[in-house]
Amino acid sequence: MKVIRRDGTHEIEIQRSRFLCHVARVTTDAEASEFFARVRKEHWQASHNCTAFRTADTQRSSDDGEPAGTAGVPMLEVLTRRDLVDTAVVVTRYYGGIKLGAGGLVRAYGRAVAEAVDALGTLTRERHETRRLVSAHDQAGKLENALRAAGYHVANTEYGHGVTFTVLTKDPDDFEVWLAAATGGAVTAIRGEPVDLDS
């Protein structure tokens, strides 16, 4: 899966109509609705504010007065084709006086989203397993250096009676084999909740 790298707006012009594609990262239906309302309020004079959003669990779209299936659906198809999740888009159209026809609208709305995604960039989202390691203070620096040198993602470090490292890994079995070898079996990994990491 992928997510948008950053929120932003990208504009194209087709046959004198302006198409402004606003893109935002969202995680819920409520966040998407709030984003849509904010853009509609800002561009209340526009001819149309067509919307689409997609999360891992749900997706929907709206043509906002354009002929059925000519705006929201092609916008959503771009998100689906690009495997984007947690992404909401609004394409604001300021009509330029030239009718585009159904096919022209489908291409225009799809192109507006595709070009915005290209301009803003994407990140790959991957599921990682969490492992917590507790080390003695005098061994913690050596262990942290070894973790980072081996390319493991140290998400958090806590200092108490010992030093607790939270490590994210895509392959927990390989990690535990590496850990046993690196510490001579002195440090064990405690399983945590899986998390998604964007990179």
Automatic annotation (TrEMBL):
One matching Pfam family: DUF1949
Protein name per UniProt: YigZ family protein
Species of the source: Lentzea pudingi
Annotated family: Belongs to the IMPACT family.
Cross-referenced InterPro entries: EFG_III/V, Impact, Impact_N, Impact_N_sf, Impact_YigZ-like, Ribosomal_Su5_D2-typ_SF, UPF0029_Impact_C, UPF0029_Impact_CS
Family matches, as PROSITE patterns: UPF0029
Residues covered by the Impact N-terminal domain: 16-117
Domain of life: Bacteria
Residue intervals of the UPF0029 domain: 137-185
NCBIfam families: IMPACT_YIGZ (TIGR00257)
